[in-house]
Amino acid sequence: MTGANGDADDVARAPWIPGPRRSADDHADLTADPTPVTPPAPTAPAPPMPPEVPETGAEADEPPDVPQLTHRVLKSLLGAWALSACSAGETKAVEDHLTECAPCAEEALRLRDAVALLHEDRDLDLDPLLRSRVLENCLGRRPARVPVPEWVTPYDAETARLDALLRDIGESEWHAPVRLKWYEDDHLVRRKTTVAGVIGHLLAVDGLVSSALGIKDPLGAGVPELSPTERTEAFWSALDRPPNRALRGPWRDQTHTLIRTVSFAGRGVGDLTVTYKDFALPLRDSLLERAFECWLHADDIANAVAYPYAPPSGAHLHGMIDLAARLLPAALAGRRRSGLAAPARHLVAAGAPGRSLHLEVEGAGGGHWYIALDSPAAVGSPDRAVAQVAMDGVEFCQLVAGHISPEEAAAGQDGDREAIRDVLSAAASLSRL
Amino acid sequence: MAMETPPRWDRKMQQRLAAGEAAALGEFYDRFASLVHSLAHRVLDDDAAADQVTREVFGYIWENPDDYDPKQGNMRSWVARLTQRQAVHRLRQAEATAYAETGQGSAEELEQKVRRAHVAARAEHIVTSMPAPLRAALELAYFQRRDYRQTAADLGVTEDEARRRLRLGLQLLSSANTRPLEGSSPPGGYGRTL
């Protein structure tokens, strides 16, 4: 805008008088602005309707300090005024001006109507289940030439849900404190970070899968084999300032690249080994584990910023519970070797049914699992069940994530108490940063 | 906030959809689902109907990715136009059914709703195609509720410049309300229902 300072200063230098309105023709010089946005005001005194008063911090009983502003500045404030984005004093100054300047009043009304056209696409208003329904409908109408493998869908769905949450949170919420907790040596460990720090953690650990697939590792090239915790610490300490919302892009890009790469990789890629330093998983389980972590950390974030967050769909939750149940016999054996679990009672030949714990999971994604107690080589069997634990699916996942203690878990227990204690402790020991 | 510049992203996405890549469909949904759903909801004012339109619009795009013509604008405004067209189609259908069954509703009411839908789609188009600095300023002031001084600080510009951008952005947007209506056909050459 080319200013008309000279013209407008007459008005601006005049003391502010909250008195009667002046009609437009009292200061015709204002309309002589070289670049009027609207046609010059009619000479007839036509005080326009004042627009509805925007919400400001102004207190009714305490009038704000009204600054003296030039016409040029008042006009430049119209956009900010329409968006309620100026100070209480400026708001008052603009509104006083509108009663005496027809062109500005006309523009003010127009801009205020335009604000009503802005609207927020809020992802949280979308039912997360709509995504799978829409995609299913599409693929029914035209089958994919390059499908996303079935076992990748939990990771696809959970990363999409977390991304929708991230899209809706404000700049400051990225710095909201998050308290991560998990079990280490049978003790609850806590670690303080922020929402952005959690995304950095997910980005760094998903990088394990990336490097297994030969994709660019977020930790850089030539990183030695690190555990998930070590990767996270390395990533956090390499940042030159506290993590912020800028991490959303790299995190999301990596998830997209992973899903895409696996889709193109063809059959057999699910059996590829992903090493976590201390253990390894086939890719199909690894991505299920990453989906599980993504959900639980999304839940941590949602709690930190007071947003609601639902558990995964029943089918995906079932897969996650199943993975934990499959990992339990080996976790039990590991604890036994460290003296943390009772010694084996009845060793059987590999592949034969052994003493088992019946895990009954209720609710969506639930089912029945039989956990072999004495050896990972034995097969869990209903006939040899010596104990039973009944739990809700989400509660079981919270136990596996180390969010609740083995003592807090288990709504219903029946049978061999030692077996129950060992299995629940082993479940909690699956948790880590 | 965009992770890749729109024209490049749009072209690549079109190619990937045309190649039948399901992973691309997921990414496409994640980028536009809230736009489609909220536009449809503004026209139809009903969750189930907006869900239905969302399903139809994505189904159509997945089957016809080659219909997108980058020369006519960015992908976002193409998606907005398709949505608006389909939502208005559904609206007319629903109102006709309601009229036949109950005798309620008037032609003027319907046309008013249709007009509002056109204005909404034009506004969407204006917002997505306005210069990025203007959009960024509006985003901060409106969605992030920053005042213009904070907006200036966030953008690293003078307060004068922040005021200018907010005013200019709204002036552009206001043309959605004042531009003459073009009957029931929206801008662009995508003339048929899905």
From TrEMBL, chain A:
Protein name: Zinc-finger domain-containing protein
Signal peptide: none
Classification via Gene3D superfamilies: Anti-sigma factor, zinc-finger domain, dinb family like domain
UniProt region (Disordered), positions on chain: 1-66
Source organism (scientific name): Streptomyces gardneri
Keywords, sorted A to Z: Transcription, Transcription regulation
Composition-biased stretches (Pro residues): 36-53
Domain Putative zinc-finger: 76-105
MF GO annotations: metal ion binding
SUPFAM superfamilies: DinB/YfiT-like putative metalloenzymes
InterPro entries: Anti_sigma_zinc_sf, DinB/YfiT-like, MDMPI_metal-binding, Znf_put
Taxonomic lineage from the root: Bacteria, Bacillati, Actinomycetota, Actinomycetes, Kitasatosporales
Domain Mycothiol-dependent maleylpyruvate isomerase metal-binding: 156-302
Record keyword Transcription present: yes
From TrEMBL, chain B:
Keyword Transcription regulation: yes
Gene Ontology terms describing biological process: DNA-templated transcription initiation
One GO molecular-function entry: sigma factor activity
Keywords: Sigma factor, Transcription, Transcription regulation
Transcription as UniProt keyword: yes
Gene3D superfamilies attached to this UniProt entry: 1.10.1740.10, Winged helix-like DNA-binding domain superfamily/Winged helix DNA-binding domain
Domain RNA polymerase sigma-70 region: 28-95
Domain of life of the organism encoding this protein: Bacteria
Family indicated by similarity: Belongs to the sigma-70 factor family. ECF subfamily.
UniProt protein name: RNA polymerase sigma factor
Organism field: Streptomyces gardneri
